[in-house]
Amino acid sequence: FSPGLLVVAGSFAAFRLLNRGLERLVPPPPSARRNRWKTPGGKWGTGALPDTHNLSPCRFYLHPEMSNDLVGTHPPGAHSLVAVSVGYFLEDFVDMLCNQKLHQSWELLFHHSVVIICFGIAVLLHQYVGFALVALLVEINSIFLHLRQILLMANLVHTTCYRLNSLINLGTYVVFRIATLAWMAHWLFLNRQNVPPATYAVGTAGMAIMTPMNIILFYRLLRSDFFK
């Protein structure tokens, strides 16, 4: 039994409670009420909040030694941060299963399944925590991706705020999603001799799944916000 599992469970419960609180404090707009998943925990709820994922750059700043060893070196707080993120993705996964039709959410469910498996390995083994923190850099872009969805639901698509957010969203998408995933794939390739075959297979499969998904989403964003 790993103590990290307690952190995962606590994170899951905390985000569930936060969802319920947000539902009462910030009523969703009519467009969100038509889709249950867009209310408490989805696009209008905690899914729209800058969460603990975005603390990963702070960890590399405070503990630069992790940059030299993404496998075995990590402070206790870094392991807890990854465990909290697993709880977040689990909560969002359950929320989608309960409130969203499968044909509308299968891509996100698939994405969350890959993240939960990969991060879960890091939490249970206390290894590859640094690599998981690199992956969490991707979530910096989620701030602007979720803000875009909120502006859409609030019918503010023809505003300067939406246009500015679209530009920042695409810029951070390239830097923190596409470039980060490319670096991670390159790191896996260079360190394949130092990573156990089973872990290497999981990591490679994760990269093979996440990279095309993010490229397709980038194309959709570009087409919707600039070429429509």
Automatic annotation (TrEMBL):
Record membrane topology: Multi-pass membrane protein
InterPro entries per the UniProt record, alphabetical: TLC-dom, TLCD
Main location: membrane
Keyword Transmembrane recorded: yes
Localization of this protein: Membrane
Keyword terms of this UniProt record: Membrane, Transmembrane, Transmembrane helix
TLC domain boundaries: 39-228
Residues annotated as transmembrane: 131-147, 167-188, 200-222
GO (cellular component) term, any one: plasma membrane
Biological process according to GO: membrane assembly; phospholipid homeostasis; plasma membrane organization; regulation of membrane lipid distribution
Protein known as: TLCD2 protein
Source organism of the structure: Nicator chloris
Name of the coding gene: Tlcd2
